[in-house]
Automatic annotation (TrEMBL):
UniProtKB keywords: ATP-binding, Helicase, Hydrolase, mRNA processing, mRNA splicing, Nucleotide-binding
Domain Helicase ATP-binding span(s) in chain numbering: 377-635
Organism field: Theileria annulata
Name of the molecule in the record: RNA helicase
Biased segments, Basic and acidic residues type: 141-150, 198-211
PANTHER family assigned to the protein according to its UniProt record, in alphabetical order: ATP-DEPENDENT RNA HELICASE, ATP-DEPENDENT RNA HELICASE DHX8
Length: 1117
């Protein structure tokens, strides 16, 4: 606003304020400004009058007319220019052209080389070094190794089959037994091993060298990584050291050490600033261009009682933490709980081995879905897309795939003979490549229309298996669909009532997606037990970094992210005959993208079936999205659940929850308890408090209460304990996150406690921070939680919030994940499939344009997109890795920098949730042990040092036990390393390495990390750090190796919000690397000056004769 406009504004405010004072005796300038705002907003006098009446302004029409005329005369509204008209038009195609680029799926110049099957020698060598006791000379993949092991059991009888199955189940227990045997052999052998660890490490490093460098040069670089004790000194410490040198009080030896320390100081860093020039395809669309969009509404009532409960509870918990930490009064009997639960686990597993196959069949028959077996098979045959609604525990996840398997859906020609006389409902024929469509004939005897047009659903023709002359129909359904690599050929026996065309049949798979890894593994193991087969044969599962399938696999459970990876390489999913999207109501980001991609697959493949299952009542929304497809409802168990609401809102949900557990345990009839909490910390705290209170009640001879935690980071063997029935005379209490809402089914629950809160992931594109925040659950989640209490008997649900809160402060359904998380991974996958038009992409719930633009901006600076917004060859490579694009860029750059083995280790360590074990009764010792691993360069080098030390100790479990490390987490790191190495070798990403003369390996590793995380850079401020992109104030996390070190420039892996905004997993960098690796994001500041060439001249004594009398160097010490 210039001077004239400001004078006009002040003049009209003064005039309107004077009129209000004269006519209404009101002297408020804020009210005058509000009236002026309404007048400028209105198109005419009538609209101005209407707006004032809506705001309860008791003014006469004449006075309103006079106000409007004076305001428009003294300060007329500004005429909108062309740009304002564009913004006001609210046309996304005009405002965001980067989101509406033309799709181009056939870019031949970006095609990667055909993947290889056999690993190269360098990959075999690296993988063999991960476990020296296993030779993998013919190694292809983990899957092939498992297949060879499973082939040994091919001709065994049932007793031997069961024994082998149990051996796999007890493998983790054998590992623990070996650990105690190793401890019993004495500590002398371990001391001897540690004394020789350095010699062994040198031998291993000499064989690791894949270049022409000498062994000594490689050894020096490795020792520089592991044993480098160089410490960066800040400005204050440097000045103090210089004064000590001048003081003359140091000995010659001390002077030599101090001078050598000063000589190792880092060079002066050039000043960097943000490059405000966006690429051509993002001009005027980024946040730095001034675009501000309204965020997605995560909470129905931000100032409601539940939000006050969250704030109050967090304050109380922080106070309790400080009290326990200060007075050292925490006493934990958690180990006793683990021992008791371990003994219970032994009893349960022993009993489970005695359970015969007939009992499993009886359990299957007792499921609600069993009576609908034939009906649901007919519906799947008659409908290409089917929506199945059924409560958790109805059997839809485990039984529908088995029904399809028993009906021989996986035999391709037999499946075609079933659907050939049926007019497929769902999408209309797309006439796209690979599909000729189904030629329909007019027949008045059929019920409902025989074709579907304009994307609208239709009733299906009845199933007729005894048909003739259907060869042409089957060929029409096949189209030009090619056979996938599964393609095993077997003889088939025709089933009764259906004629099979060919005796030679191709097998295809039945795929089922799950939103969580734990549910994927548990369900696959359950189905393999029901089918009496070894996991990995007919039934297998595939999660990230773990593929337990084989060529025999027909029923394949997988996470939705893994299916998204498969559809990236095969959009038509030629290896599958049916896909079942289970738990679709959870609306994960991968599931939402699969909705649209599988719709397109259904349009191109008529020989394909899609089943969408949900446990909530959003059936109409799903049906409308999928071409008004048919809805099939499975009735749940008919046990009623009595719901109790709090009379008043509780403000400490954890304390109230624990009191409710004790009241139920002491006063209610037998039955297990399920408490929903927000996260691991709440669960562990709750278990500790309950154990203390139960110990005080021992004299009352109350029944025993078994406590079990359930959260995603919990080891798998401990997660299995919740499925064990409680021994007679005891009660089981499970403290779980929202993973127990729908992903797992627990029998015996009669009481559910619902605080009404959960923890969700939320991404803020303005700050670039993705954090877990506590929010109120939705009404659908609340109903889902209450349903857990009525599975086996009438139950009760205790809601720790009022009924008014349920209706007013909870959203009807949860916010889809695609509207609140970082979208870089999804965008690069869609780009690699040739999808560039995101505005017209068929999302069920469209993500925010601001988040899509932010993802495009990040990918452009990473080098995955060019100036036109199209995928580059580097971006195509980055899309092949099942990790974040930032980590993919680091991995690919490390190949050029000749430090890929170290970077693969660091990425693998970052991919597991937690490698440190910190028991509540030994926290100080665990922290001391962790500090022993700290490296001066940062946390990423610390992770590398930890893994190398574990490798030097022969990957020992005993070493992990002594150093408070999670052994199973490090084993998982090994598996991730093997898969990343195989991907690099599979797509031939190895290339000639760059010659780096001026950087040692430590600096090369730091530079590689900077190549991907440059947008997570921060510079030291007075008492904190400032992020370079948005000047956000952040702090170093206390657990970091750089805590209280304060280097000038750092990179962080993630930001977490607790009491402050902390940076976690940091690495020291040089600012010149930002200019070299991210020239599109950072530029050099022209006003940069070198401190050594600038002499500070204060203004207050510029007339003094001696200008330098105030300097410290002029004073005598």
């Amino acid at each position: 606003m210039d001077g004239i406009e400001e004078l006009q504004s002040l003049s009209v405010i003064s005039k309107v304020n004077e009129m209000l004072k004269n006519y209404l005796e009101i002297d408020q300038s804020e009210l005058a400004e509000f009236i002026i705002y309404l007048a400028k907003k209105s198109k005419d006098l009538d609209e101005f009058n209407q707006l004032l009446n809506e705001n309860d302004a008791n003014m006469s029409f004449d006075f309103i007319n006079q106000l409007y005329r004076i305001i428009i005369t003294l300060d007329p509204p500004k005429q909108m220019d062309e740009w304002d008209n564009i913004i006001k038009s609210n046309n996304d195609e005009t405002n965001f052209p980067a989101l509406s680029l033309k799709n181009n799926p056939n870019r031949k110049e970006l095609l990667l080389p055909s993947p290889t099957v056999e690993l190269s020698e360098w990959a075999k060598e690296l993988i063999n070094k991960e476990n020296p006791n296993i030779k993998l000379q013919n190694y292809k993949s983990n899957k092939d190794r498992d297949n060879r092991d499973r082939d040994k059991h091919k001709h065994r009888d049932r007793r031997s089959l069961s024994r082998d199955h149990d051996r796999d189940r007890y493998r983790e227990r054998d590992i623990d037994r070996d650990r105690y045997r190793e401890r019993g052999r004495g500590r002398d052998r371990d001391r001897h091993r540690r004394s020789r660890s350095k010699d062994r490490y040198r031998e291993r490093d000499s064989s690791r060298d894949l270049e022409s460098d000498t062994v000594m040069e490689e050894l020096e670089e490795e020792i520089d990584i592991l044993n480098n004790k160089k410490r960066y000194i800040n400005d204050i410490e440097r000045w103090e050291n210089q004064q000590l040198l001048k003081s003359g009080i140091l000995t010659n030896e001390e002077k030599f050490k101090l001078k050598s320390e000063l000589e190792l100081q880092e060079e002066i860093q050039p000043e960097v600033t943000i490059n405000l020039n966006p690429p051509n395809f993002l001009k005027g669309q980024t946040i730095r261009s001034g675009i501000v969009l309204s965020p997605i509404k995560l909470v129905a009532k931000p100032e409601g009682s539940l939000q006050r409960t969250i704030t109050t509870s967090l304050q109380i918990q922080n106070e309790l933490k400080s009290i326990h930490h200060t007075h050292n009064t925490t006493h934990s009997t958690h180990s006793n709980t683990h021992s008791s639960t371990h003994s219970t686990n032994t009893t349960h597993t022993t009993a489970s081995t005695k359970r015969v196959y007939k009992n499993i069949l009886e359990e299957r028959k007792n499921l609600p879905i069993y009576k609908l077996r034939e009906e649901i098979i007919n519906e799947i045959i008659n409908n290409q897309i089917l929506i199945v609604i059924g409560e958790t525990g109805s059997g839809k996840t485990t039984q529908i795939p088995q029904y399809l398997y028993e009906s021989k859906f996986h035999y391709y020609n037999h499946f075609l003979s079933l659907i050939s006389p049926v007019t497929v409902t769902g999408p209309s024929d797309s006439n796209g490549p690979g599909s000729k469509g189904i030629s329909s004939t007019e027949d008045t005897s059929t019920t409902g229309p025989s074709t579907v047009t304009e994307g609208k659903g239709a009733n299906s023709m009845p199933m007729e298996c005894n048909t003739t002359n259907n060869t042409k129909d089957i060929e029409d359904i096949k189209g030009t669909n090619s056979k996938g690599p599964l393609g095993t050929v077997t003889k088939e026996t025709p089933i009764e009532g259906c004629r099979v065309l060919d005796t030679v049949t191709e097998k295809k798979m039945i795929g089922i997606t799950q939103p969580r890894r734990i549910s994927c593994i548990n369900i696959a193991k359950r189905v393999s037990d029901e089918m009496y087969c070894i996991i990995g044969n007919e039934v297998g599962y595939c999660i990230r970094f773990s593929d337990v399938t084989s060529d025999k696999t027909i029923i394949k459970y997988m996470t939705d992210g893994m299916l998204l990876r498969e559809i990236l390489h095969d959009p038509l999913l030629n290896n599958y005959i049916t896909i079942m999207l289970d738990e679709a109501h959870e609306r994960t980001i991968a599931t939402d993208v699969l909705f649209s991609l599988l719709k397109e697959t259904c349009m191109k493949r008529k020989d394909f079936r899609l089943i969408v299952t949900s446990a909530t009542l959003e059936s109409e929304k799903f049906s409308k999205y999928f071409f008004n497809s048919k809805i099939f409802k499975i009735p749940g168990r008919s046990f009623p659940v009595e719901i109790f609401h709090s009379k008043e809102q509780e403000f400490d949900y954890l304390e109230t929850s624990l009191i409710t557990i004790l009241n139920i345990h002491l006063n209610e009839k037998p039955g297990d308890i399920l408490l929903f909490l927000t996260g691991e910390e709440d669960i562990e705290t709750g278990i500790k408090i309950l154990e203390e209170r139960l110990n005080k009640l021992k004299n009352m001879n109350i029944p025993k209460l078994l406590l079990f935690p359930v959260y995603s980071a919990l080891p798998q063997d401990q997660q299995q304990q919740i499925f064990q029935p409680a021994p007679p005379g005891t009660r089981k209490c499970i403290l779980a996150t929202n993973i127990a809402e729908a992903s797992i089914t627990i029998d015996g629950i009669l009481y559910v406690i619902d605080p009404g809160l959960c923890k969700i992931k939320s991404y803020n594109p303005k700050t670039g921070m993705e954090s877990l925040i506590i929010t109120p659950i939705s009404q659908a989640n609340a109903r889902q939680r209450a349903g857990r209490a009525g599975r086996t008997a009438p139950g009760k649900c205790f809601r720790l919030y009022t009924e008014k809160t349920f209706h007013e402060e909870m959203l009807p359904t949860p916010i889809p994940e695609i509207q609140r998380v970082n979208l870089t991974n999804v965008v690069i996958i869609l780009k690699s499939m040739g999808i560039n038009d995101f505005l017209h992409f068929d999302f069920m719930d469209k993500p925010c344009n601001e988040m899509l633009i932010d993802a495009l901006d990040i990918l452009y600076h990473l080098g995955a997109l060019d100036d036109e917004g199209l995928l580059t060859h580097l971006g195509r490579k980055m899309a092949q890795f099942p990790i974040d694009p930032t980590l993919s860029k680091i991995l690919l750059y490390s190949i050029e920098m000749d430090c890929y083995n170290e970077i693969i280790t660091i990425i693998s360590m970052l991919s597991v949730q937690n490698i440190f074990y910190r028991p509540s009764d030994k926290r100080e010792k665990a922290d001391q042990s962790r500090r022993k691993f700290f490296q001066s360069e940062g946390d990423h080098l610390t992770y590398l040092y930890i893994y190398n030390q574990w490798s030097n100790n022969q990957f020992s479990n005993y070493y992990c036990y002594n150093n408070f490390l999670q052994y199973r987490a490090l084993i998982k790191v090994q598996d991730i390393k093997k898969q990343l190495i195989s991907i690099i070798d599979k797509y031939k990403f190895m290339k000639k390495k760059m010659k780096i003369d001026n950087l040692n390996k430590t600096e090369r590793i730091q530079k590689c990390i900077c190549s991907g995380f440059f947008h997570h850079s921060a510079k030291r401020d007075e008492d904190s750090y400032r992020t370079l992109l948005d000047e956000q104030k952040v702090y170093i996390h206390p657990s970091s190796s750089l805590f209280q070190r304060n280097p000038e420039y750092v990179l962080y892996h993630e930001l977490i919000l607790t009491s402050k905004e902390y940076m976690r997993d940091l690495t020291i960098i040089k600012s010149k690397w930002l200019l070299e690796l991210a020239p599109t994001m950072f530029i050099s500041n022209n006003n940069t000056f070198k401190h050594s060439n600038v002499k500070i001249k204060p203004l207050y004594n510029k007339f003094e004769k001696d200008q330098d009398y105030w300097r410290l160097s002029k004073r005598k010490l």
